[in-house]
């Protein structure tokens, strides 16, 4: 199983950290490659369980040969996942998309790319590239095993493992449901037809749930009918199904959330703001704001230029008996870069902007300078971060 994940643009660095990825094992085409620590645990279990299957299917092999074949199969499975992810990575680079890292697990991998401005056709090709690499290697391995003399049983077994490992990774990832590559391809097709990326994500996510259920059904059917392969691999099959179900569920949630991005618009969501001098008592500023019906309070300088925004959290933390004696500026946050947003900011651009500069309130203005500050434009209002969360909450009804 292989997935592709957009890299968080707000955390870009020249040197990719191993935190959350595992052990770094090197670079390929300039791309850092990591192996998850869980690979070693799962590999040990798989060597033992698959060794039983090898003994069942190849009784002429002794114990050492049996587990040697099983161990080589596990390494080849990791190699198949690596080649699969490399296919995604090189296809991405061919389209000029930056690839940040590849992380390999026993049962799959992850390629982190810059996914901004992607198109359905590009997504389809990049998703197809991974399974295509495995299928080609699987066919080559199968032909090679057929041509090898039967007397070279162990060598033939190794090559067959190479073929089967790649065919398994390739075919399985073509199943049409997220988070598999086939799901990404299905999403690209629906996206192309409907021009709605978020609807296509939900559709591919629901199909992914169907695939997860089907995987469990096939495994249970095999076990109840005495299929040895399924009885040995039932735990891994259920693990795969669990992974698919979780990935599909996340895709459905992402698609549902994405549909609400269109409701985000800084100018429309900003609350009217009251402009006050820095030395005005906090209590008086709050009274004037309530009287004027302007929930936002912006502190301005002597030339009426915005300096800071009154923080709702700071106000709530200030006892009422102190508010008449403290200046409003003491409960305000200065307008650092990123805290001033243009009124035209909307959708995913708005999400990226607030992720880059987390805060409880933002000043919304009609015009920004290239440096991100007010450029002679008018103050439109104050945008509360909570209002963004409310719009994105699928349980909220937004007018």
From TrEMBL:
Binds 1 zinc ion per subunit. It comes from the Bacteria. Keywords: CBS domain, Cell membrane, Hydrolase, Membrane, Metal-binding, Metalloprotease, Protease, Repeat, Transmembrane, Transmembrane helix, Zinc. Residues 73-147, 156-215 form the Peptidase M50 domain. It is a multi-pass membrane protein. The keyword Translocase does not apply. InterPro entries: CBS_dom_sf, Peptidase_M50, UCP006404_Pept_M50_CBS. It is found in: Cell membrane. The keyword Transmembrane helix applies. The chain crosses the membrane at residues 29-51, 63-83, 95-112, 124-148, 199-221, 227-245. Its main location: membrane. PANTHER family: MEMBRANE-ASSOCIATED ZINC METALLOPROTEASE M50B (PTHR39188), STAGE IV SPORULATION PROTEIN FB (PTHR39188:SF3). CDD domains: S2P-M50_SpoIVFB_CBS (cd06164). Its cofactor is Zn(2+). Belongs to the peptidase M50B family. It holds the Pfam family Peptidase_M50. This is Zinc metalloprotease.
